[in-house]
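Q: what sequence does this backbone want?
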């Protein structure tokens, strides 16, 4: 597997229909926290959206939800969290893909995933992806063919770790850990409570807390097994 980080001029993405032309009149920055689903015609993503001015009341957003969805090509959006001090919304957004993105998704055949860092402002877009090297090369070749200027900021191999400890994390545990990290659950101080995090997963707070503790236990055991071999009794991570 390989990871690549690209830098674009945001104005070129506006021309491709990937960014609404008026978006940065009201917003300072958008950051992709997690891609939950990426299909040819649509995508479901968790975003951090920084507003130029104070955050709007929930009631106002509700009243104008239809206009907001139409303006930004959204099927739906949900405010997961408000952060007035930093002027940030955390949003769960389902958005229709423009033709240019549909073509790239078809070309990647599900073998490329957007990942952090992935941030846009009015001038510059930093976009990162990981996936099969051959597929990444095809996608970059298509961007060059379409004359979309970009600069490769970083490209690196990310080998798959196949030890027994890593295999103990289920796909659901990995997804929950990634989302918890992206939303600041492990930050000091925490940026999101367990109850609010649970809302984004469709689980109850007690069930989510148990899943996170189990996943954390596996990761700690994996770390100790590497750094302090023999320090743990057999089966301690179960």
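A:
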């Amino acid at each position: 597997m390989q990871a690549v980080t690209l830098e674009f001029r945001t104005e070129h993405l506006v021309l491709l229909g990937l960014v609404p032309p008026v978006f940065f009149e009201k917003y300072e920055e958008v950051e992709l926290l997690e891609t939950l689903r990426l299909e040819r015609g649509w995508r479901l993503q968790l975003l951090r959206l920084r507003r130029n001015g104070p955050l709007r009341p929930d009631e106002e957003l509700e009243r104008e939800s239809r206009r907001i969805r139409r303006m930004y090509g959204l099927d739906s959006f949900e405010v997961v969290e408000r952060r007035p001090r930093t002027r940030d919304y955390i949003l769960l957004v389902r958005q229709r893909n423009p033709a240019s993105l549909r073509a790239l998704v078809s070309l990647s055949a599900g073998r490329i995933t957007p990942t952090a860092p992935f941030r846009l402002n009015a001038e510059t877009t930093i976009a990162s992806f990981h996936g099969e090297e051959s597929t990444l090369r095809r996608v970059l070749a298509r961007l060059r063919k379409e004359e979309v200027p970009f600069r490769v900021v970083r490209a690196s191999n990310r080998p798959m770790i196949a030890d027994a400890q890593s295999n103990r994390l289920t796909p659901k545990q990995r997804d929950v850990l990634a989302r918890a990290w992206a939303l600041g659950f492990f930050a000091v101080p925490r940026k999101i409570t367990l109850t609010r995090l649970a809302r984004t997963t469709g689980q109850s707070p007690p069930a989510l807390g148990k899943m996170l503790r189990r996943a954390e236990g596996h990761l700690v055991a994996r770390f100790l097994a590497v750094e302090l071999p023999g320090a743990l009794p057999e089966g301690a991570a179960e």
